Amino acid sequence: MASIIDKCTGCGKDVAVAIGQSLANGKVMGWTAYHCSQCGAQVESDEAELPQSHRLAIMKTEGTWNLFISKKTTRALYALRKGLPISLNETGKLVLPGVVASGTKTEMELLCQQLARLSVSSELRKSSD
Ligand SMILES: [Zn+2]
Question: Distances in Å between the alpha carbon of 24 and those of 43, 102, 122?
Fold first, then answer.
């Protein structure tokens, strides 16, 4: 699990905050949680969107994941240009077959599911960098 050092909202001391993402209702939700040993604060929060620094910490722990489409089809191109509620890359520069997006594993899982709903098959690959 990824964690970052942040300030406790109760006492202002440094605390290790656990962070993660999960899929809920077709969206990526972020969450943070910590227990402060200084003042006893127990904080858990859900966040619609994690800050970039949190996403980078997650990718540092879980790796960066790529979404790969192995076939160039009109349907795939259409889905990537118009069909996805979110787009993580400039779809204008897409080259298929190839990697169409990269991010955290959870973000790529969501894209994979969204593409599957549009009858486009894609696969998650962990980036080797
Ligand atoms: Zn505290």
Answer: 20, 20, 20
Residues 107 and 54 in one domain: no
Which of 42, 62, 82 is at the close of a domain? 62
> From ligand 1's centre to the CA of 30, what distance in Å?
22
User: From the CA of 14, how far away is ligand 1's center (Å)?
Assistant: 8
What pTM value is reported for the model? 0.86
| Cα separation, 35 vs 113, whole angstroms | 34
Task: State the distance from the centre of ligand 1 to the C-alpha of 4, rounded, in angstroms.
Answer: 15
Going residue by residue through the chain, which has 129 residues, state the pLDDT in tens, using 9 for 90 and above.
899 999 999 999 999 999 999 999 888 999 999 999 999 999 999 988 899 999 999 999 999 999 999 998 888 888 877 766 555 555 556 778 988 888 999 999 999 998 998 899 999 999 986
* Residues 69 and 102 occupy one common structural domain: yes
